[in-house]
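Continued from yesterday's entry.
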Amino acid sequence: MAEFHIVVVGAGVSGLTTALLLSKNPAYRITVAAKYMPGDYDIEYASPWAGANYLPVSAAGTAAAEHDRNTWPELARLARDVPEAGVHFQDTTIYAHASDSANELFKPDPYFAEFLPNFRLLPPAQHPGYDHATAFTSVCINTSIYLPWLLSRCAAAGVHFRRAVFTHIADAARLQPSSPSSSAGQGPATADVVVNCTGLSSLRLGGVADPTLTPVRGQTVLVRNEAAGMAASSRTADGEGEMCYVMQRAVGGGTLLGGCAQPGNWDATVDPNLAVRIMQRAVALCPALVGERSEHSEHSKHSERDHSEPNEHDSPPQRGIAQLSIIRHQVGLRPVRKDGVRLAKERIGGVWTVHNYGHGGYGYQASYGCAGVAVGLVGEVLAGGGRARL
């Protein structure tokens, strides 16, 4: 049986998931080469900072929606059958205004109601201040467990891992598959295909240099407090680009409070004023975080005003963000691409390259769907008999 050497560049959720699916083919020898690996924390490495849940936002009938749909069965299987993966089911509530219904997540009748368990519209009494609210079962992912779990599954399947930094994507084809002493990007080409899963690095990576990529800065607060399920609202009173969501991670991973979406902002430092607003919004949306009963009428009061201002009509009074036990503040950069994720094949510098990057904030919830497409593209390249020639 013929063997093919494939180098996957990037060890975030997209690279690792692609490598894992490729490893199911016994004809493939796979090397994952990356500057950062699970366990690392750096602003250039997006996956550890992700909220990591499953909340589809793409319009029905689009390729992005199909990637999300095709990812759900595997995430649900992991939550049901593989507790060590760090994926777990959560009851989820989405509060929405009718004017925000262009976003699939905030529609009263989204396409994912067909397959997400327990989907239902909530009665008006349960969402005062909002036009409608939906509830369903989804999943949340503890990234600090899930990324190492993906790596371990790849390693068990025979995937090799190498630390490497490339200035040009074609250099990855020269990486020797299993020799720790060999130098990255030197020597003759040995890879039949290179798979580009470099996320935001594709903005500057030689041979790719995609100008349609932009960072969209996100900031979150990870706390020890527990939430009563996962929740999000379609807007905040704090202006464009600010968001409110709460998700509790599996296996003691804490509860993540978010957030924001700031296009073009590369700043890796924490904005303390934004952090306060994030915590205030989260406590208003989920009072259970600080030991209060979840009164939805209270949610609506807080979501429509500046939380830094006292309000004599608040009853009962919130215990406030001082009751939050903070683990850390976090900043990450979503790799957003103007036309959405790039899933394509091309020859670059004589090397067949398959692209799987530009997932924005939805890398986890589209991971298996996109990786499946990338694996198909690798198969198309190899069916044509093309080996890298430099």
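--- second protein ---
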Amino acid sequence: MTLGFRVCDRLIAKPYKPVSLSSIVTRRAYASHPPHARLNTSVDYATTPLLHHTSKAALASQHLPREAQDGTTKRMNLFQAVNSALSTALSSDPRVLVFGEDVAFGGVFRCTSDLALNFGSDRVFNTPLTEQGIAGFAIGVAAEGLKPVAEIQFADYVYPAFDQMVNEAAKWRYREGATGGNVGGLVIRMPSGGVGHGALYHSQSPESLFTHIPGLRVVTPRSPWQAKGLLLSSIFEYNDPVVFMEPKILYRAAVEQVPSEYYTIPLSTAEVVKEGKDVTIVSYGAPMYFCQKAIEALEQDFPEKTVELIDLRTVYPWDRECVIKSISKTGRCVVVHESMVNAGLPQQFKRDAFFVWRLQYKDVVDKVHTLG
């Protein structure tokens, strides 16, 4: 293929010379990393230290109850861990309901596979295609004492439900006043984040929108082990509605050993994944894996430097004590996320960490090179 460049051939008497497209366009393989790249390469989930590759590692956490520590594990990917959490919740409490678009058929990502078969169509069922209706129905049944787990098929479709979630669910306890009424147990799950080919309606990370809303909790797991424990905690342990955002790129990629028994992970409790003294990196969800790779490369080039890596797990309300303690030690903070830049989570960090002496602050956002 050639491109012809003529500039008013009546005025410029120069011969027409075809130009090769390849000579002016640098071609790059779709959704791939540049040649010789040291970072932005594919993640080796089979070896990353961010996953529990053995049963011993999976059962060693202090968050696990004794029966879980003495129990067994099963190798699961993230969507299987979500399914295990939902199955455990349905088995544990008859008040738990699971519903959403195509949920009875297993859902787009198979997170609800076999649940309708095992627990019946009264507790696991499909809804019409109406995100506002799904959220509104979930709020109503939660107000009556049930524990609904509603699925929004993609996070990109949550916006019609925004009014119900912000003006009703988040403000329920305030409106109830001294009556003690709440919609605890209400969990709205949704796949979020980029996958490299999701285009405009299947790539968004809208968690920052919800972190501005008092009364909501926003959770994003990075692994199957976290997904099960955080989801069960969201359903049973808190009186606030929870927005549970699952990184869809990890549904099948992240695989690890997950305890078979019931266990929960406290919300609003960050995890110091790696200790360091020179800079703090704070992230959550899928970007955690790229942070880990970057740290390994940096510490190889600069062996005298060490980096502290924190996984928020709960994006809002985030663990201020853990993060500010770390920044106070290192004096530097890098926040890595996939969500909006303007008025997002990093701005909250700036406000709360402003008083930290000699703080140097940088906000890093994942660049999505191609959405289509």
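The longest strand covers residues 187-192. Residues 1-14, 365-372 have pLDDT under 50 and may be disordered. Will compare against the first tomorrow.
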